[in-house]
Amino acid sequence: MKTVLFWVMRHGQRNGDKDELTEQGFEQVRASAKHNLSSLTFDAAFFSGMHRVRQTAETVLTTLGQSVPLVADQGFGFGWAADEKRWPFKEATRRVEEAKAGGAQETADLWLEQWPPALMVRGRLLATLLLRAQMLADASQRDTIRVLVGSHSPTSELAALDPKTTLRLRETDIMHYAVEVGGEGPKLVTSEVVRAPY
């Protein structure tokens, strides 16, 4: 039995509509990395394919002084589900904000209720976690494999074992997943939110 541990970090503050981090975004990433990840050595690193997420993952690795190849994998992102023409994400955001104004907590489950494509994103993220865990376990002699992932919200938290209680990630918060890989294949066994230090 091997265990693959994923630390999926939401990107730092975005620069308006640009696909890049602000200076504050870089500071957020450095602070979260130092606070939450400084005791870890990563064996692999992925990002969703977007520039601001790549900047986030690169900044984490640089902050920690680690040199790990960074691989793009759209399975860790929104993918086509964020296409505004097909799946109105902005409309879902409006509905989520209305629900929050009515007293609802912004959980992964609220996004699953208010944005139907979130269910597809959940399935895609879970499949990506399990597939990558199996591939990494097969390629490694280690019993425990540590993986950094740069991603988004709501995406990072959608594969949570309990979406009803899993709060949406803030900038540079982390979703920690543990996947066990054994004879019957990979299985997600734990998930938890790790908050950034602000």
Q: Which descriptors would you attach to this protein?
A:
198 residues; globular; six-stranded mixed β-sheet; 6 strands; Rossmann fold; alpha/beta
Question: Would you summarize the structure shown here?
Answer:
By secondary structure, the chain is an alpha/beta fold.
Main beta sheet: strand number and arrangement? 6 strands, mixed
Name the CATH architecture. Answer: 3-Layer(aba) Sandwich
Estimate the mean pLDDT confidence: 93
CATH third-level topology: Rossmann fold
* Termini gap: 36 Å
Helical percent range?
25-40%
SSE order in H/E notation?
A: EHEHEHHHEEE
What is the alpha-carbon Rg in Å? Answer: 16 Å
Structural class by secondary-structure content: alpha/beta
Would you count the extended β strands for me? 6
Can you tell me the residue ranges where pLDDT is under 50 for at least 5 consecutive residues? Answer: none
Counted by DSSP, the helix tally is 5
Number of separate domains:
1
Name the overall outline.
globular
Biggest sheet: strands side by side, in what order? Answer: 3-2-4-1-5-6
Strand coverage percent: 15-25%
CATH class: Alpha Beta
In CATH, the homologous superfamily goes by the name: Phosphoglycerate mutase-like
